[in-house]
Amino acid sequence: MDQYKPTLILIHISIDLIVLGTRLTFMKSKLSIGLYWFRHDLRLTDNRTFNKLCSEVDRLICVYVKGQEKEFRSSFSEGETGRFKHKFEQESAVELDIALRKKKQYLLFVDAPAHQSIVDLIENYSITHMGVEEHPGIYETKSLDAIQASCPHVQYITDISHNLFNESDLPFELGNLPETFTPFRKRVENISIDPPIAALLELPHAIEPMPQAPEELSFSGRVRGGEVAGNEQLNKYLFGTDLIKQYKQTRNALDDWDSSSKLSMWLANGSLSARTVYHTIKQYESQRGENESTYWLYFELLWREYYQWYLAKHRGKLFQFSGVKQITPSTNFNENTFKRWCDGRTKYPIVNACMLQLNQTGYMSNRGRQLVASCFVHELGLDWRYGAAYFEQQLIDHDVASNWGNWQYLAGVGADPQSHRRFNLAKQTATYDPDAVFRKKWLGSEQQ
Ligand SMILES: Cc1cc2nc3c(=O)[nH]c(=O)nc-3n(C[C@H](O)[C@H](O)[C@H](O)COP(=O)(O)OP(=O)(O)OC[C@H]3O[C@@H](n4cnc5c(N)ncnc54)[C@H](O)[C@@H]3O)c2cc1C
């Protein structure tokens, strides 16, 4: 993945200044005024929570809290958000602003902590309705609960927009979600999935005159945040290149951009919906034929889906040392060893190469993630939660349910039926990097 240097000038608007002009106008009016908070659903297509809110209100304000991804991180993750992740997030939000402007709306970027800024907006604009995606993350849930407690008079419109299924589609109660993936997959994989819904052509009017658009916006490099780029990647991977036809054979590669869909980044911040991906796969199959690989991309989406419900069921246990299984691992935390792993300075070249790839791009392949996580727990004897927290900070595609669920799986305290999945790093190196191409690329020819 190329490095890139987007130049973004985000709109800085002081909430106090904006509200002064309109406060009195709306205070006594009978208009219904909606506030939509965009979180992990930075898109207009297939955003039914947003559409629902729009159908209920006369006026609308759309809000994005700058740096909100940091607010939603676990308490283990103290460092700054990785620069690639940060840029991707900014790009996605700016692109959403551009899409809204085409419909005579705009995104208000606020700087303050989420709870305070949303409550202030609700009070200052006499908001009657608030819309926000329903998300299983602990902090996401807590922040919405706190807003609801502070503003009980507001009507809240929430819905799940991150998943393939609605909770009512599941053929079991959430409390009976299977504890491992395979029984889950078998019970859900033939359920029909709602088609994505179109973006609204017209939106309720803004409550303020539109501020000036970002003056300059330039992107470069392969990975660009936002709804347009996410859809481009989806269509390119399927219809543009037919790469999906070999997906099952190529998906384990350590470093080849085309080996897997790379959709995780757009799925994670919701600039692309999982339903859109699913229905595009189905469209591809009906036009160009299905095979094991086209099915396998859906199979992997089901893994993502499984972890979303797994987090919704197990909540805080996903972040506990003893995990969902409540087995206490015989590992602990050593700062020096941890730092060496983060920096790619362990005695395992394959692990070091993967960590440098992560640090220099914000992405790591699925195979790489399995190897470095297995090394973290089984070779270095470290508390898995710190590894998950480092991923949380660095991965562009960080998704709380997928990340913590996969780490628990590899630490033997989560959804793995085997309980002890230790990768033989020498054997894995021989299989996945037989000619040392990957190690040479990231470590140079002497260190591997
Ligand atoms: C320790 C560890 C941590 C991980 N952390 C994350 C994370 O924070 N965010 C994230 O999206 N994925 C995570 N994964 C899963 C997986 O590695 C990535 O989804 C995948 O590498 C992304 O690349 P891709 O889009 O090309 O995937 P593809 O192989 O093209 O898969 C298509 C989609 O299926 C989903 N998917 C694939 N594999 C998994 C999986 N094992 N678990 C859940 N969903 C999956 C993703 O949404 C992905 O975009 C993690 C895996 C491990 C082992």
What does this structure look like?
The protein has three domains: 7-161, Rossmann fold, CATH 3.40.50; 163-198 and 225-315, Serine Threonine Protein Phosphatase 5, Tetratricopeptide repeat (Alpha Horseshoe), CATH 1.25.40.80; 335-443, DNA Cyclobutane Dipyrimidine Photolyase, subunit A, domain 3. 47% of the residues lie in helices and 8% in strands. The protein has helices at residues 15-27, 48-56, 68-71, 83-101, 114-124, 138-150, 181-188, 227-240, 247-250, 264-268, 274-288, 292-314, 335-343, 349-361, 366-379, 384-394, 400-411, 425-432, 437-443; strands at residues 7-8, 33-37, 59-65, 107-110, 129-134, 155-160, 205-206, 217-218. The strands form two sheets. Strands 2, 3, 4, 5, 6 and 7 form a six-stranded parallel β-sheet that branches. Helix 1 runs parallel beside helix 5 and helix 8 (227-240) runs parallel beside helix 11 (274-288). The protein is globular and about 70 Å long. The relative contact order is 0.14. Mean pLDDT is 90; it is low at 1-21 and 216-220. The structure holds flavin-adenine dinucleotide.
